[in-house]
Amino acid sequence: MSDALVVAELAEDGTVRRATLSAISLARQALGALGGSLSILVLGADAASAAPELAGFGAAKLYLCSDASLKNYTAEHFAPSVAEVGRKFGLIVATATSFGKDLIPRVAARLDAAYAGDCAAVSVQNGKLVYKRPMFAGNAFGYCELSTPIQTATARQSEFEPAAPTGGNSPIETVNKVPPGQAARRVEYVSLDAVKSERPELTEASVVVSGGRALKERFNEIIVPLADVLGAAIGASRAAVDAGYAPGDYQVGQTGKVVAPELYIAVGISGAIQHVAGIKSSKVIVAINRDGDAPIFQLADYGLVGDLFKLVPELVEALKKHKAEKA
Amino acid sequence: MKILVPLKRVADPDNANKVKVSSAGDKIDISGLEWKLNPFDEYALEAALRLTENGKTPKSREGEVVVVTLAPSDAETTLRSALATGADRAIRVDAADEQLDGRLVSLALKKLVEEEKPDAVIMGKQAVDGDTNQVGQELAELLDWPMATFAATIHEEPGALLVGREVDGGVLTLRLKLPALVTVDLRIVAPTSVYSTKTERSFKYNEGVRFAPLPAIMAAKKKPLVVRPLGELVGAAALSTRYLRFERPPQRSSGVKVKDVNELVHKLATEAKVI
Ligand SMILES: Cc1cc2nc3c(=O)[nH]c(=O)nc-3n(C[C@H](O)[C@H](O)[C@H](O)COP(=O)(O)OP(=O)(O)OC[C@H]3O[C@@H](n4cnc5c(N)ncnc54)[C@H](O)[C@@H]3O)c2cc1C
Ligand SMILES: Nc1ncnc2c1ncn2[C@@H]1O[C@H](COP(=O)(O)O)[C@@H](O)[C@H]1O
User: Fold this and answer.
1) Could you tell me which of B155, B210, B208 has the C-alpha nearest to residue B180?
2) Is A39 within 8 Å of A60 (Cβ atoms)?
3) Which residues pair with A213 in a beta bridge?
């Protein structure tokens, strides 16, 4: 492998999403083992405004690609330009958010490159990169090698510490957007229904409180006060989302978001493997469930058996008291 | 509308205790697992059926659904059940699982799409064995088609699909001019997620996927199923992803049950030190 290119992800307001820093970590680990330099590519309506945020990560080059059609992300508009810059690199990486998972395989196909998605680690064996990936709903890790000249990957955010800046000021190179092809001309960005929240992001929060099917229509009434007292992000099981008790982007699990907070509290969640796949790396897991045999207790550090509608309000009071005493 | 639906049958990881790694660590031992249709593909098939019918009772078919799998011959049971559920034709590309990776699957599907010329490809967002989540995106790029991944809703419009995607920050809506590719997420099988242009917006589907009635299972035996060699579709392209070894993740051990909220708060503060 030679050099690595990280594709930065911007938020709606044009600032750099913190998730980007996990991709930088993966790239640094790969380069640390194999040599070569890091570059970063930013695409957006005004990529230059995000440049200062990324100039201090030791990148040999900071590529900026600005165009009005890059204001709202669509893979059809982004992938050709990422591939164009990326073809000089041995490794192209983004973080496995809904942005990276959508974009990078599309870039890979354009470059006839192999792809390792949602990587939990990278290492080197016989001079080649080996990607560690969760498979089978987190019940196995596979270690794989890619054999195409260009390799592509996404980094599982919860497994790569956000990269820290190293100082310096990366030189900037402005690149032109590749003109839209067939695909880009046939896609229209209509709208983003964003769930506005003052809470920390689910994938970055140090405390996460998740609710399951058991909460019914009282999901918010029960979960919000608990999340408030802990300054926590709110998650949910698939069953709670499917039933409409919580929005889709709350889903935690194999096919939802993967979280790794200091403290994860599962309220009225049974602990199906698909849910567990998304919480396994949490430091401390607490489960509240009225069924003492629920599978969630097999991995919870602390289990509380009983009716959540009674226990959660009690817990909120106890936490408030604890906070007051601590203060 | 004509829709191509790629299907994969997977070793179902649902029973976690049965996912094992061989003692040499060189393969996943799936002997304790059941084969079943990848759940996301089951949902994709349901979405494709909804898009090719007039949703009323009884439903009338208004298009064609072609299902395709790349798999060994035992996967024909999976194709037959898809035909029984309502698909019109099936194609099996003969390949052992070890002969395939995401890139080869997309290359083969690209060829089939060029032959079949569907208006849309609707497929699962990820196969729950490898959890790779790549084939749809790669196929869309190879075809130079617009795509919408992780779809929770699909509303057909004349010549286009209006798709609601589940993204990290909420729901993102895209309009794709046909032909186009959609990969589906879990919520696509909710009662009001998918509408063809022929279906009244007041119509509500049952939650989840439909099941094949017995006569349909019999009739499916007569529906066309053709087998194609892999080499015919991918030429000399070779595998580019190779798994060197596997391991089971470290197991978390179960902790303690506490008697009440006060003990919990006490332990979180003094023992776990997380509050
Ligand atoms: C392809 C696929 C992907 C999936 N992906 C995900 C995913 O990403 N995330 C996910 O979460 N799931 C996922 N699932 C679904 C998963 O298999 C489970 O169905 C789901 O996690 C169950 O949600 P639950 O625990 O809220 O509901 P249930 O399993 O119904 O559990 C409810 C729990 O609440 C308890 N309870 C009920 N009432 C009370 C009360 N008053 N007080 C205390 N406890 C109470 C019950 O004892 C029970 O344990 C997926 C499934 C498939 C097939
Ligand atoms: N062997 C296969 N045969 C047919 N379709 C497949 C195969 N492998 C993957 N797919 C399709 O690609 C989707 C995404 O799979 P993956 O990228 O492997 O997670 C699946 O939901 C299927 O629709």
Assistant:
1) B155
2) yes
3) none
Q: Is B174 on the interface with A (CB under 8 A)?
A: yes
Helix axes B135-143, A98-110, angle to 10 degrees: 50
The pair of structure tokens assigned to A8 is: 């930065």
User: For atom 11 of ligand 1, which residue has the closest CA?
Assistant: A237
Q: Chain B contact for A48, CB < 8 A?
A: no
Q: What is the pLDDT of residues A162-208, one digit of tens each?
A: 999 999 999 999 999 999 999 999 999 999 998 778 899 999 999 99
Q: Write down the ipTM of this complex.
A: 0.96
In angstroms, the separation between the Cα of residue B20 and the nearest Cα of chain A is 8
Question: Which residue reads 């307001």 in tokens?
Answer: A13
Ligand 2 atom at minimal distance to the Cα of residue B132: 19
Helix boundaries (H) for chain B: 39-51, 76-85, 102-116, 135-143, 214-220, 230-234, 261-270
What is the per-residue pLDDT across A266-311, written as a single tens digit (0 to 9) for each?
999 999 999 999 999 999 999 999 999 999 999 999 999 999 999 9
Q: Does residue B75 sit in helix, strand or coil?
A: helix
DSSP B205: P
What is the rounded CA–CA span in Å between residue A313 and residue A318?
Answer: 9
Q: Is B23 exposed, middle or buried (0-12, 13-18, 19+ CB in 10 A)?
A: exposed
Distance spanning both ends of chain A, measured CA to CA: 53
Ligand having the closest approach to the CA of B100: 2
- Whose structure tokens read 């060699």? B229
Ramachandran category for residue A28: left, alpha or beta (phi over 0 → left; psi -120 to 50 → alpha): alpha
When CB atoms are compared, the residue of A190, A276, A315 closest to B173 is A190
Beta bridge partners of A187: B176
